[in-house]
Specification:
The chain is α+β, with helices and mostly antiparallel strands. It is built from eight helices and 14 strands. It folds into three domains: about 120 residues, Nucleoside Triphosphate Pyrophosphohydrolase (Alpha-Beta Complex); about 35 residues; about 140 residues, Nucleoside Triphosphate Pyrophosphohydrolase (Alpha-Beta Complex), CATH 3.90.79.10.
Length: about 325
């Protein structure tokens, strides 16, 4: 891929607010997807690039870099793939994803010349955000294809079309078009009324002393702001005000969109639900910086690291 790759470890591009799995420089070229002849020509073009995946995992080289194939190697993988998707154009060159999930891992490695398979989340802190974006983009589409093999309305087989961006019900009296769905969630940095502390929680299953920002899925009939207020009330018993949008992040694990907010608590009293959350604690900036110095400030590939880092920076520059 050919665009500027200036980036910062942790997936944050400070200049334009791009986070891991976002900022992809592919031209998704949606108008080409329905052109079967053009899709066939691009698949046959020896310049076209193929990104192979195996059961939602990247196939990587000995240098732990995702495999990128063209020419005869790409053609071999496309012919063997269970599903292929057109991801877009990179400087006029087509980029496809190829899913090898129905093969054994050993066969997938042999087909692609890779040495191992790795979850893209393990690579995100070491890849330019747009490189991680392309892998996650393909991963999300392939997961959807595997979950949408039948029509939810009539039960007939649904077949892939549109360059892998739609499935079509084969039912004679149905023919419903099925598209990938996004599952929006809010992720929130809650600060105390005096803005000197932030609220972090330990989730069920998390190790002792492991805390993170608060998050939850948006429900039907809710605005993003409604979801923030409801989730904070349900999970930690806190009423919040002064909601401020902080950015968004594609999170295709499998189909999320994380929408980040900062909010201010009406009081410092907390009451966890005891189900999703086991405890919640207020942290000063000094305490948070001690955690950062020890190597933790949110997930390296998640927008929560931006929420925490920006809150720290705001306090120190005020």
């Amino acid at each position: 891929m050919t665009a500027d790759r200036t980036w910062q470890r942790g997936g944050v591009r400070i200049d334009d607010g791009v986070f891991a799995y976002g900022g992809g420089w592919l031209d998704r070229a949606g108008a080409l997807r329905a052109d079967g002849d053009r899709m066939a020509a691009l698949r046959a073009d020896e310049r076209s690039v193929v990104l192979p995946l195996w059961r939602d995992r990247c196939l990587v080289t000995a240098e732990n870099v995702p495999v990128r194939l063209n020419g005869v190697d790409a053609a071999r993988v496309l012919a063997a793939a269970d599903e292929t998707v057109f991801l877009g154009l990179d400087g006029g060159v087509a980029v496809f994803g190829a899913d090898l999930s129905e093969h054994s891992e050993a066969d997938g490695l042999a087909l692609t010349g890779a040495v191992s398979t790795v979850d893209v989340r393990k690579l995100a802190g070491h890849l330019a955000p747009a490189e991680a974006a392309a892998q996650a983009y393909a991963r999300g589409l392939f997961y959807w294809h595997r979950q949408q093999r039948w029509c939810g309305s009539c039960g007939a087989v649904a077949t892939a079309g549109g360059g892998g961006h739609v499935r079509v019900c084969s039912g004679a009296e149905c023919g419903r078009l099925l598209f990938p769905r996004i599952e929006p969630a809010v992720i929130v940095l809650v600060q105390s009324p005096d803005a000197d502390r932030c609220l972090l929680a330990r989730h069920a299953g998390a190790a002792e002393g492991s805390y993170s920002t608060l998050a939850g899925f948006v429900e039907v009939g809710e605005s993003l702001e409604d979801a923030v207020r409801r989730e904070m009330a349900e999970e930690v018993g806190v009423e919040v005000t002064d909601l401020a949008y902080q950015g968004s992040q594609a999170w295709p694990f499998p189909a999320g969109l994380m929408v980040a907010f900062r909010a201010t608590a009406a009081s410092v009293e907390v009451k966890v639900d005891g189900v999703e959350l086991l405890e919640a604690c207020w942290f000063t900036r000094d305490e948070l910086e001690m955690r950062a110095a020890a190597g933790w400030l949110g997930r390296v590939d998640s927008i929560d690291s931006h929420l925490l880092g920006s809150w720290l920076a705001t306090g120190r520059t005020a």
